[in-house]
């Protein structure tokens, strides 16, 4: 029986093709080091890092939309999953580092509502056509 070699997904960085796993691992390690340095080296408050991370992701998504709107719509599900995964990772890091108290349910509810609102306002807005009696105009590309 002949085994087929698993095809690797390659990422083109300048003129080099690098395995996606290495790029992903490098980004995760870089983000972990950056958050650790900001939290413990510069004593940046955790909420500033959380909102800064969300703002940075939204700016990257906006730039991606401007550069390749078709690719944006094709990858919208992945972008939304990345946004929610970033939220969960920040919450887990906040719980582990004791910067977010799980007994303070009001802040947890507010942060969750903020994430859902951003998802509805930014990512799902073109798909929402009617809210109660209000008709929304569809943005045609």
From TrEMBL:
InterPro entries: SpoIISA_toxin. GO terms for cellular component: membrane. The chain crosses the membrane at residues 20-40, 46-67, 79-96, 102-123. It holds the Pfam family SpoIISA_toxin. This is Uncharacterized protein. Keywords: Membrane, Transmembrane, Transmembrane helix. It comes from the Eukaryota.
């Amino acid at each position: 029986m002949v085994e087929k070699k698993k095809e690797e997904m390659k990422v083109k960085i300048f003129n080099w093709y690098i395995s996606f796993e290495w790029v992903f691992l490098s980004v995760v390690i870089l983000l972990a080091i950056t958050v650790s340095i900001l939290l413990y080296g510069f004593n940046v408050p955790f909420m500033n890092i959380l909102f800064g991370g969300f703002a940075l992701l939204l700016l990257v998504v906006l730039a991606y939309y401007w550069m390749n709107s078709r690719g944006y719509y094709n990858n919208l599900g992945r972008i939304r999953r990345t946004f929610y995964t970033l939220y969960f990772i920040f919450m887990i890091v906040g719980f582990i580092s004791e910067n977010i108290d799980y007994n303070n349910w009001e802040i947890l509810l507010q942060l969750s509502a903020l994430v859902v609102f951003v998802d509805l306002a930014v990512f799902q807005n073109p798909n929402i056509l009617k809210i109660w009696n209000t008709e929304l105009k569809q943005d045609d590309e």
